[in-house]
Amino acid sequence: MLKLRQLNKPILVAISRKSFIGATLNIPDPENRLNGTLSSTAIAVYNGAHLVRTHDVNEQILEMVKMAEEIRRNI
User: Fold this and answer.
1) Cα–Cα distance for residue pair 35/53, rounded to 1 Å
2) Which of 7, 28, 41, 42 has its CA 20 to 30 A from that of 21?
3) Tens digit of pLDDT per residue, the chain (75 long)?
4) What region holds the Pterin-binding domain (predicted)?
5) Which of 37, 47, 17, 46 is nearest to 65 (CA)?
């Protein structure tokens, strides 16, 4: 992410339900990967992602992004 940030362009992440989440958490069904999606997306936002593409646009995702941004700004 650091190298991407050096380009001074917006960064889009599309982590939602990805196979690496399933492999890491041993969750074969993509529909059941919300927790992995939330944690991976939070790390990406904290590290500078500007845009998030997700399958699950809901309060959990919105609150997680808001918290990650706030933590990044204040630490």
Assistant:
1) 16
2) 7
3) 889 989 999 999 999 999 999 999 999 999 999 999 999 999 999 999 999 998 878 888 889 889 999 998 998
4) 1-66
5) 46
C-alpha span between 56 and 61 (Å, rounded): 7
Catalytic: which of 18, 33, 72, 73? 18
3 catalytic per annotation: no
Taking the model in full, what pTM does it have? 0.81
* Rounded (5°) CA angle 3-42-46: 45
Instruction: Decide if 73 is catalytic.
Output: no
Is 12 within 8 Å of 50 (Cβ atoms)?
yes
